[in-house]
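SEVERITY: medium
COMPONENT: batch folding queue
REPORTER: lab tech (J.R.)

DESCRIPTION
The queue accepted two submissions in a row. Attaching both inputs and their returned structure tokens so the on-call engineer can compare them side by side.

ATTACHMENT 1
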Amino acid sequence: MSTVRARVWRFTIEKRKGDAEAVQAVEIGQGPLPVSLAVMVNINALACDLRKTVDQRVRDYEISLLLSYIIGG
């Protein structure tokens, strides 16, 4: 299993004068997070389909994207 350096954020919406709103992001933690690359590819491939079925084209795209990060290209 691989690890990634993860950062955890807390987002809040701040109301301002009138109807204006502003998003405030505060980092609340960071550290190594164990990640299964195979599971990550499947989760990303499922994320774009409401039926929760894996489209082979999407999975192939996710794998090529992941490989581009691994080989630095």
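ATTACHMENT 2
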Amino acid sequence: MTSFEHAERRVLAALWIDHHGPQRALDPDNLRVDYGIDLTPQTLNAIGARLKARGIAAVIGDNTSVGMILKPIGFPEAQAAALSLIGGSTIMVNFAQKEVIGDGEFGDDFPGSSGWKYMTAKSSPSQRRHIKPHSPVSLTAVESKLLTTTYAITNGDTRQTIEARAVMKRFNFGDQTSGWVIDATKELRSLGLLAITPRDGADEDQLLQLTQVGVERALAALESATSAAMIIALDHNDPEYQIIAAEMVEIEAKIVSDNRLENKETEIARIRLVRALWDQASIRVEDLKIGVLLAVDDLCERTSSAYYNSALLLLASAITNFARTKLGIG
């Protein structure tokens, strides 16, 4: 790894940690004082340009003072950068208490300052085997259905084997049953989520058995499906909620009065839909993530002025922070 790549990794880790606190753009002074990262303007500009080109961070300011904000899509990569610096598989941040806890070693190159605590909590080897430092590979709808159905039939017992036919009886996977059995089970086996015992006969006769990693992934899939449909209340009297609502009104007014903006009517409709969802007394988790947060992020991508980039990214950061701290949505 080159010194530049290492510096970029440290900046990414700092962006990830800072995301857990009040919304702001990390500038050179913040990086130096709060995270012990002192880079030349040329290096910081180059890192900002790379992160912006990859779509994982936005850059605000000019060549003399660059500020960066991590985008939601960049969270997994930034967390992976933090993990790589400690050589661990898990890491957590308590921003209010100024604590970072991980299962690796915090060296001098880990971003931070003297006011923070860095604690190592070792996990057992068996736990570490089942934790991936990067985001898990996405499963297709069929693979996820096969995995969660296997979990439901076996009650998550990794000692139990079942015939693939038992899964087929529980759900309809379409016309090409043999195809999904071959493709989906092979893929789940390659990911270490499922063990397969071949048997004479048709594909439906082979035995399926969950691994411990498969149990954890099935539970995560079930939890995700449940939480997406969950309806949560929005407290309109909460000061943070009101600040976000006011920022939406201000951005809409700016778009309405901006005659230079391309596809102006479309963007007006987008921000008004976001506002309509946010003004509700309650909202589905899926609508909050897609109809509000991702819509704001998409709107930012479609506008190019410094005002929109800054205002919309700060708005997205505020919504993400509100969802995490007030609604318990990661």
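NOTES FROM REPORTER
Residues 253 and 268 are 9 Å apart (CA to CA).
No errors were logged for either attachment.
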